[in-house]
């Protein structure tokens, strides 16, 4: 080996393609039998958690429990096979209960399946357009507010089964009307159902405290099922309400796609896609924080899109990344996406072998499971800390929370995001003023010239202050000089402020002179029409008198 070959630097590792599934990355790194054993154990652990949750979420969403299993099997497998996160677990999520149940009430089960199908293509397009990079910029108070709002809605949706109430009319969707209807039916409370639900909650919390690694939800549901069947308690079960579960998913088929059906399903599809993108990428971020890995957000959106299309073909509903199951996967020692694929196959094996046993599960037991899920997802400490923090963050949090609970989930996210953006603009403007950025007169050489130096990014929030600076200038100079040497970037709103100033000067037979514009800044100014003769450009202030 020559000295040159010994001292030559080793080539840098090539960056993997943005849409490459993590499954291929894991296989490239080398996948041994010990990795398969670890993934099999992790997949089994997640499947044990997913079994009761999938059925509980489906029932709470207004569809049969088998639909939750279809969603877990098909959607969960595709999310892990194609996804950009090494540890993501896909399936039905509690966050979708509100939207799915409202969708079923509005356009029926076939409409739900069509909306899921369409949402998959929206997510595929979002990934292809690389929009996943921007979803992470949703303000933290918005995510906490809508998560807490969803938790409240999930809990209230389970009150009927928790207390074993019998309603004389269909349960209302709106939370105020729902609580009023449940209160009217308080005389039908079933002590056995309430006892089963409280027992399930107690067992789950007890197992979590004394045996954290044990599947508390499955243990609690199994004990409740044995107790209800053994004692012959008058408690509604999956079998009494839905009949026996099928042993296999149905043959795949396209949903009914008439023009009228598509138009009715499209708004729901957009909502499913928006919430699914947010939920899945938040889950991927959580997995990154726990494992030290790094997900590919746009590849993850593509996988979520494919999973929703696949779920709809098999009669399932919305698929997204699930934070609790993903965290369980990481803690169980997963080595990569194989554990997620195996978790889906384990759930399929349950359908093949033990589907009839699901008929013995009390609905009150599943209501207890979802009550625990709602309590855990409420992010109570984060909510309290934000309330005690700045007034702006607290306002965004509270508005998002109230809109989600009393109005609409999508409306809460959109309004919360808009308020968060306004808060950001205000803070950036304040920070610019405190740091000396912005507009400040630095010299007035004579009565016909004013020089102003700008510092820092000149975006729409900062540009609004230029008008107030102009109002403070009493004279009407013939030359208005703006030094932008220390402006690294400018947006169209900032350039527009310069254009208005240039036109104002032209009406007074004066001129605007822009000094020191960087190439990127000059490009934006030129696109806005800030060129000669309306504006003069100079390289620096020293060129003012040497023109």
From TrEMBL:
What sections of the protein cross the membrane? 40-61, 68-89, 95-125, 137-159, 179-204, 216-233, 265-287, 345-375, 395-425
Membrane topology, as annotated, equals: Multi-pass membrane protein
Any idea where this protein resides? Answer: Membrane
SUPFAM superfamilies hit by this protein: SpoIIaa-like (SSF52091)
Has the keyword Transmembrane been applied to this entry? yes
User: What InterPro entries does the entry give?
Assistant: SLC26A/SulP_dom, SLC26A/SulP_fam, STAS_dom, STAS_dom_sf
Q: Which UniProt keywords apply?
A: Membrane, Transmembrane, Transmembrane helix
Its predominant location is membrane
Please give the Pfam families that the UniProt record associates with this protein: STAS, Sulfate_transp
**Segments forming domain STAS:** 439-547
This protein is called what?
SulP family inorganic anion transporter
Q: Which organism is it from?
A: Fuscovulum ytuae
